[in-house]
Amino acid sequence: MAKFKIKKGDMVQIIAGDDKGKKAKVLQVLPKSAEVIVEGCKLAKKSVKASEKNPKGGFVSKEMPMSISNVKKAEGDN
């Protein structure tokens, strides 16, 4: 398993993809697939069935994993 310099809670800058240029916090690092989940980036709409927690159901925006090569540590955050 590879080691990465980016850890959970780090501020990163997106360097590729639809969210290029955004700065956000890392929510999770997935080392086996070399991916990260970044707060508010690469959002996908997921359909949700009605439940006690969400009585109406509908759609929920959820962050999806992106390749760790598409992010870099934000300047000033060492």
UniProtKB/TrEMBL annotation:
Q: Where is this region: Disordered?
A: 52-78
- A GO molecular function for this record? structural constituent of ribosome
According to its UniProt entry, the protein's GO biological process terms are: translation
Which GO cellular component term is one of those annotated? ribonucleoprotein complex
Gene3D superfamilies cross-referenced by the UniProt entry: 2.30.30.30
Quote the Pfam families the UniProt record gives.
KOW (PF00467), ribosomal_L24 (PF17136)
Q: Is Plastid tagged as a keyword?
A: no
The answer, when asked if Transmembrane helix is one of the entry's keywords, is no
Q: Where is the KOW domain?
A: 5-32
Keywords (alphabetical) are: Ribonucleoprotein, Ribosomal protein, RNA-binding, rRNA-binding
Record's function text: One of the proteins that surrounds the polypeptide exit tunnel on the outside of the subunit. One of two assembly initiator proteins, it binds directly to the 5'-end of the 23S rRNA, where it nucleates assembly of the 50S subunit.
Family listed: Belongs to the universal ribosomal protein uL24 family.
Fetch the NCBIfam families from UniProt. rplX_bact
Name by which UniProt lists this protein: Large ribosomal subunit protein uL24
Q: Which organism is it from?
A: Helicobacter cinaedi
